[in-house]
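Researcher: Next sequence.
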Amino acid sequence: MTESESFEWPVLSTSRRSGCNTEARESPLEPRPDGGSRTENESAEKRHRILRVLREQLARHPATTNAHGIPDGFYAEVQAEVDPEYFERDADQATLRVTWQPNPAFPPGTGLEDRKRTSLTANFAFHYSESSGFDWGWHLEPNPHVSGHLHAQERETPDENYAYYEFTLNATSAVGVLWEVLDALEARLREKERS
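Model: Next structure:
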């Protein structure tokens, strides 16, 4: 391939699960349930260990009523049921979905040099959703709507477009990120409830 040629990854699927249109890309590596690509077995085991620790930490938060890894035994994500009343919210139910990719494969034209406002090299998503339709997510992953990968996104209902915001992370570990995000989630939900 010459410098003037560019490689196009074929699109396998489109998803609105995390709130933005993300395309899973075909690669020489097998796709994972969380939208990333399987790398060496060591990376998948590292992801599982990190998510297991995040599940254990998340279970300690007073708003968490249940936290479990999916799939059982070799996590690709963690899902937690959250009590919205803890945040003084009127919703009947709420969930927090967590993904963590310790060794992400970046799409062509993007890489670690696009990381701004954090020193982390992993990709992650912490996505809070309520039965009312409100959802808010903190993501460190490529997204065409923002510069620098690290962003927050919010919408009141599923039929609305997301509003995107830049934010800065001080945490340098997965557990630190979890607690920083949980503090930000609580502050944001209590602020919304007061307004």
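Model: Residues 41-104+119-194 form one domain. The longest strand covers residues 94-101.
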